[in-house]
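Page 47, continued from p. 46.
Same chain as before, 332 aa.
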Amino acid sequence: MMNKDLIMISSFCNTKEKEDTLRNLVLQITNHKDKFDLMIVSHTVVPDDISDKCDFVFYDKKNELLYDWDLRCTPWFDPDNQRPIMSIFTGFFNTHLAIWRMLILGNSLSKNVGYKKIHHIEYDSSILDFLELYDNSKLLDTYDCITYTKSKDTVDDILFGTYQAYRLDTLSDELLILDEKDLKTKIKNSNSKSPEEMLFKVLHSGKKGVVKKKTLLDLNGNQFGLTTNKLSNNHTAWCLPYYDKLTNKLSFVIWNSEDDRESIDVQLIYNDDKIINFNDVKHLHWMVRDIDDFNNAKKLIVILNGKIRNEFDFTTNGEKFKQISFREKNNR
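Result:
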């Protein structure tokens, strides 16, 4: 049995900037090597200078992204607390399988070599204060898992996916044995298809767990999701069309909700002959607008900050679209 806890970093560093972010996190962890061993599980090759500072490095070339509409996440947003909007088009693919593959491979290796406690951290983090990790290590003497909840107005509270701590001796086999076919089936049958929601259920179901507020992790200069924050000006999740079940309209929603964000501009080209502009949508502001009766919809191009974000052809997949991007008739 290993006496130390293991910090397991899941990583995908396909740029020099991302490698530097990982390199900085590894250096921060090495200052606490008396308490934590270190493993990196990565879908990209880890540079030698980073690997040399780790106890284990696991490179897995396979990084399968899920593009099928029935495997994509379906988050919701309720802009005026009346009727929620649900859509798969907040992103372009689901990373669920790729992330869980890293977790499962890392967990199984860690258990086999004798570790008892795991702290999983995503690579794009900066941890200046390790007090939460030390506290969680003590809690794992009594509890099976510790997770954090991220809260934001107009959406459900959700598991903060960048850090969790858990015991390997009580961990579910779902996070120890890789079965990609079964995992895809579970994603397909899930209402939200959210990796965070499904991970929360697997970690806590039938277990003795602790749920903390994500703000505790942010104390004393700690930062998480650095890559997401730096890329946020190039992507707005809630910038998409949807079918309104109440009015039978094709409508559009913009919510400029990403962190550290400036104003954005959106332009729609509808049916090749109509242009609709949303100019200077400020941070944390949202807008909803009807475009047309859905029966008239043929084509829509969405341009975000001068770059094409999406193209929709309603003549070939209109009925399917209505099932995966819609606003409910009634309140939740």
